[in-house]
Amino acid sequence: MIRYHALCLMGVGAVLAAAQVAGAGTVTLTGMPAYSPLHGGCGPTAAGMIIGYWDAHGYPDLITGGDGSNSWTTNQAAIQTVIASQEHFDDYWGTDAASPHADNCIADFMLASLDPLGDGLSYAHKQDDGLRGYAAYAGYTSAQSDWVWQTNLWPLLVAEINAGRPLEFYVDSDGNNDPDHFVAVFGYDDTPGTERYACYTGYDSAVHWFDFAPVAPGQAYGVETGTWFNPTPEPATLAFLGAGTAALALRRRAGRR
Asked: pLDDT for 64-95, tens place per residue?
């Protein structure tokens, strides 16, 4: 049954600086922007934070505004347009336009709010389309993105953070065994006996740490899927990431706004 719910690689030096020996403790990326309140839905906002991160890490055409263009404080209007443009709201919130505009924002490329989804909702398996599609729209046509289930996600999370690349998770925010929210992930904790992830929820600008656990009753922010994004991956990177996703079955799930 279908269920509806609510780098270029940054350089060897930068990648090695982010890397850490397994089991050594917490690793977090610096320069990850926090965007709150949610704009156009939790999926577009979480993906927008990832785009904002890359805008300040070698891809300045992702967001207009010059120096500091990924700052929610100083360039909020431009960032909101990247996440969900006014045309997106005009054409898809309330009802779908008969002749909609050409896709021009993250929300458009991930098909957020399109019928039968409600306003602000987007599918878990379309987050990669939003990231990859918007990057191409901004001129970065080599960008790659895909998603994996939680059972295969921990090694990928560690590898991506160590390489300086944030991810997006689809989670069950209230622990009712029903995934409903997207978050921007930029760190992990592999202290012996511990598996946690660091994220921005879009509800505030605080860094939140949650157990890296599957969706289950009572497990707040349990993880169902994760989406990786790489602006200009090398062939070896694509082979590694593809091996983790090729055999995965597709389920259509949507997070709330």
From this structure: 986 679 999 999 999 999 999 999 999 999 99
Does 233 sit behind a cis peptide bond, omega within 30 degrees of 0 on the bond before it? no
Instruction: Give the position of tokens 């689809």.
Output: 170
Q: For residue 114, report the phi and psi dihedrals to the nearest 5 degrees.
A: -75, 145
Q: Quick one: CATH architecture of 12-255?
A: Alpha-Beta Complex (3.90)
CA dihedral defined by 170, 210, 49, 57, rounded to 10 degrees? -120
- 3-state SS assignment for residue 132: helix
pTM of the model: 0.86
In this structure, how many other beta carbons lie within 10 angstroms of the beta carbon of residue 179? 25
Q: Where are the domains of the chain?
A: 12-255
Which candidate, 229, 80, 33, places its Cα nearest to that of 140?
A: 229
HSE on the CB side for 185, CA within 13 Å?
A: 32
CB contact set of 43 (below 8 Å; sequence gap of 6+): 107, 110, 112, 121, 122, 126, 127, 130, 168, 182, 255
Centroid of chain to Cα 74: 22
Question: How confident is the model at residue 65, as a pLDDT?
Answer: 85
Query: Beta-carbon neighbour count of residue 142 at 10 Å?
Result: 12
